Amino acid sequence: MAGLLFSGQDRQTGPRGIVDPVGSGLAGRTESRPLAPEAAPIRIVLGPEGRDVRLSGELTEGAAERLAGLLDAHRTVERIHLTSEGGLVDEGAAIGALIAERGLVTYVPDYCVSACTLAFVRGRERLVLADARLGFHAPYETDSVGSEFAVDSAPERAAYLAAGVRADFVDAALTIRPDDLMIPDADTLVKAGVATGIVDAYRFPDSTLDDGDTPERVRRVILHDVPLLDAVEAGAPGTVAPIAAWYLDGYHRGRPEGEAVDGVRRMAAHAVARSLADADPAALDELGRMILRAMQRPNPDRARVCAAAREGAGAVLTRPRLDRTQLAAGRAILARALGLRPAEDSSKRAAVEALAATGSAPPVPGRGCSALRKAFAAALARPVPESAQALRPLLFPAPPARLRPPLEASALPP
């Protein structure tokens, strides 16, 4: 059975590998499983302080043996982070047996698909991030021409049931065709007994770079999370490097993912705000209108936009889930602002950073969302350039002390 597969899917190139949209309900959503010519190679490494192991990539032959050697050499390991698109059933089962034998906690920070789930369910505790994805389908084999066909799933069914997974969930999972995936949401995983708990991103050390911690990989992660930094980098080369260095150092030290993301966004927001500080009045007026439209939009994102707007334009433009229109508008405004100053004057820059640090801009009274919208609307009712002057305290307020990232001196933007 060494050739029996439970998935051959390739991890995507984003910072958090995308498998399929998260489904809902006990059976979850079924999605076609995209196949790539090559799957990510297996990577098994010891995490910070020797308390966890990071396993990522395809479960190829010998993966369990490698994991056993690492666990034998490091008896302090308590937890294993699993980020895998699946692979050989025998390897998934063998890794699961090791996990059960050593009493390890299993944790999925991103995705664990197919044969990987056989390892996950053997954990003493089985924990997932709220947006983590576990994918299930029937096991399969491939014939001489590469076609997939389902095979007897009785051994997998027995393994899931022995781990305490509900029978109706197992039956639903193993009826999924080999070229599809069932991806339930985290609550369903807990109700079905697949997972024992849901944790937030501040609980465990960051696993985002488990499949590679090279400088190029770190840079891709940051630009994926904060795409507008590429526009800043185009006008101010070297902006991303110190942020990436800080992020990579934190990964090696075991900084939780939530803290790492918060810090990157704060540093990125500072860089964006600094790039906008010398924008012409028309660009600032356009930026103010974009932010006001986002705060007025009647959808669940409005509260997050208002919260970001209280911190300033940099926080608005670096918040997660910007839509395409907002990204395009942000890039255009940043390009215009940076085009005004191809060679930044150091004394001017020092003055801008001093303003950001000391908060000399006056606060807006009653800084709730309604008051903030009214303040933006009042500023924008004035003609340009008066509107830009009125907008500056709103676009570049001083960040509260509690929001400043714990920047090491070596990681400060140049």
Automatic annotation (TrEMBL):
InterPro entries: ClpP/crotonase-like_dom_sf
Domain of life: Bacteria
Ranges for region Disordered: 1-33
Record protein name field: Clp protease ClpP
Species of origin: Methylorubrum podarium
